[in-house]
Design goal:
Serine Threonine Protein Phosphatase 5, Tetratricopeptide repeat, eight-stranded antiparallel sheet, five-stranded antiparallel sheet
Length: about 725
Amino acid sequence: MSDREPRSRRKRKAAQEKAALEPTVHPKLPSEKETSKGSRTEEDVQERRSSTVKIAFVLVFTALGFALAAVIFSLYGVTGHRDADDSLVYPQAEPLYEDDIAVQNEINEFLDRPVSVEENYATVGNAPSESSSSSQVLYGSADESHASAENTVEIQPSMSEPVAVEMTHAESVVTVDAPIPVHTVIESESRELLYEDSSETEASAVQLESLLSTEESAVADEVSIAAHLEIETSSFSESTPRADVTTHQGDDEIIPTTLVQAGGSDFPEASHASSATVESVVESLPSTFQEEPSEADAQGESIERHLEEAEELLEKFPEKALAQFNSILGTDSLNPRATYGKGRALEKLAEIKKSNAIVEDAIKAYLDTMSLPKVPNELYLEAGKRCADRMRFLGAYKRALRLQLEMSEKLPENVGVKNQIAVSYLMMGRGKEAAKVLEEVLQRDKENGFAKVHYGFILKTERNDMEGAIKYMREGIATKEPGVTDGRFYFHLGDALARTGRAKEAEAVYKEGVKEGLFFSVYQRSLYNVRGLKAQPWWRAGETPYAASIRELERNWKEIRDEAISLMDDRGFLPESENLRDTGDWRQFEMFSRGRKLDQNCQRAPKTCALVSKIPDAANCKRGQVKFSIMHPGTHVWAHTGPTNCRLRAHLGLVVPPKVRIRVANDTRTWKVGKFIIFDDSFEHEVWHEGESFRLVLIMDLWHPDLTPHQKATLAPI
């Protein structure tokens, strides 16, 4: 036996002795081990499922919170970007788990992209009226104060109308009727972005399905929700109703589009699970929490309310309206409606205070309105019309014309602007240019009533084409368009009919004018009127405050006659210029006109001018004249009316041959040497000279006795 055997025995014996000294450990029975293992597996599964539900709830609630935060963030883009945490007005969701922070960071980076949000105030109303807007002798008007005869369209925008959101990437306008969800903003930013995000979602879904096992499907649902948060839309694809979206392409074409619901079909189970969860969370929120308006909406509603209040103040309290418009402009300096309202308020103040300086301020406000970058075309046109009107009121016809030509260049297809250009030409005495513009309008729009009546007016007054005038004015009036129901056109249409021998048709036109409120009566058809003045065709000196002055002139009638006769060979006698003469020769020599003394002519007739100067209501009558009138045999003056009811016309007979007569209304009389006859020339009157020698009279206009001193001082000259 070798030495190895004893040593081996000794080692075994030592090991046995050592083992005997250690405590005995009983191994677990197999049945106990299996039971314990099974129990622990069930507990682990339940615990995992419980954790999964909690995590899913937290993630969904967090997604909802960030979505709503992004809504507020995007709406606050007008006033400046805010952090998402600061924009939330409700308690914050629980902190994200570490695994989800990376996903949320990607969301935040996407949401931090700039999105331009602009609130445009839409305008509502009819197309601007095209009526003329100033009273000048060459063109005529029935408006006493020179205020515009236009029908002004008020912009009454409503904050309930869609809010226009301008997307900088796609360069399209998206209109929605409700607060804009984050998914709507993201999807509307760019079609390319939508398609790219959808592809990424599909790829992430395939990757998830390949990595996760079947028994972990609940966790897979949870992770797919987090993946969908990259585009926000999948978690709301079923639960959040999409706002209707209209994409405007160009100015005319409007194409409705439907937003793509990214990810919905790729992850049906995940989408359904997340949708149900979000629906339950949203339904559990208080109504005020779900519908809380943004600060931008509140600010817009406040401006809208103040605009409406200011516009209501315009008519009766223009100063208060002006202060309110200025206050609005302090908050929103580029608000077209407020800038235009400022001009209207200034225009009203100018009328009250009779201040040309304030008229200039109104003109500036209208020009400012037109220059704003976001002014709607309707408001641009309205401001331009009023601006040109006020310029013409101040006599700045060339300035108004330049403005209108600029407007026409900007809006070349707008015939209304061209019509107003024609009016400006008419007021400048440039009938040929006006006719050319109106012919261009009628080539574009053959049935344009405004162009027709004005073109007919020119045919009558400039070209003496009565038949053409009747055709165009009659057709134009029949359209009943804005601006055609005007005393000027009824006046000249009736006159053209009368001159062509159609007296009954003329009378019918005048009766229609009375019915429309354009004339006081069939006989009294003046256009520049003050209401409430006594109206009768013939007057006696004793019915006026001028009886003593009239007697003084009658006592000096021979000196006046001799002075007039001495001037008959003078070039100061000029042919009648109003196209009132049918036949014969009728000339006049003016000494006072529109309240001003004509010094050069008065130097040739000093006695007569000295006598008239003693009668202030004659010498200072801004709506009249003092002149010698000579009419030769064979003269017939068409039936006509004077321009205003603000004066009485007195004729002093100086040389009165037989067979001369004057009809006023339906009463015909004649002159007497050395005596005055007094009539109201706003009534129709007609003159015949069938004698054999000239007739010579002094014509003197006097303020109507019923006018107040204030009216005499403030009425515009004619």
